[in-house]
Amino acid sequence: MNPIKTNFHTHVRRCRHAVGTEEDYVEAALKSGLSQLGLSDHGPFPDVDFGMRMDYRELQEYLDTIDMLGERYRDDIILRKGLEIEYLPEYRNYYEKLLTNRDVDYLLLGEHFFYDTAGNECNTYKIPSTD
């Protein structure tokens, strides 16, 4: 049996609930013998902060950092640019722009926020009140 040599689900300090920089994760991946690493911090939204994710103002710096690290470590590991993002149908155009205009390699579904059938906001980061 071959051990897994990839990881496409990682979060860095930008999401406000993890520690370490993008480069810290690259170095840890190299020490672990990974051949590919996907950086997939919680993606921001341009007009609302759903909590526990990078601020929209950090998005370009995050993407630029991954590009720079991809060049620096190109002989050692393949880096993929990703974002863990909620699927909300009204943001479909935004998701497409991330993949095309921002050169994001992949979007990882992380369903932490949704609307129930009555249209009420449900956020799995918060435990709903039973009152």
Unreliable stretches: none
Indicate the overall shape. globular
Class by SSE composition: alpha/beta
Task: Please work out how many helical segments DSSP would assign.
Answer: 3
Helix content: 25-40%
Mean pLDDT: 87
Structure write-up:
The structure is a single chain. By secondary structure, this protein is of the alpha/beta class. 25% of the residues lie in helices and 21% in strands. The protein is built from three helices and six strands; from the N terminus they run βαβαβαβββ. It has helices at residues 22-31, 59-72, 92-100; strands at 6-7, 36-42, 78-85, 106-109, 113-115, 121-123. The strands form two sheets. Strands 1-2-3-4 form a four-stranded parallel beta sheet, with helices on one face. It is globular, with a radius of gyration of 16 Å. The mean pLDDT is 87.
Please render the helix and strand layout as text:
Layout: E1 6-7, H1 22-31, E2 36-42, H2 59-72, E3 78-85, H3 92-100, E4 106-109, E5 113-115, E6 121-123
Parallel strand pairs: 1-2, 2-3, 3-4
Antiparallel strand pairs: 5-6
Key structural traits:
131 residues, alpha/beta, 4-stranded parallel sheet, 3 helices
Short description:
With 131 residues, this protein is of the alpha/beta class. The chain has 3 helices and 6 strands, in the order E-H-E-H-E-H-E-E-E.
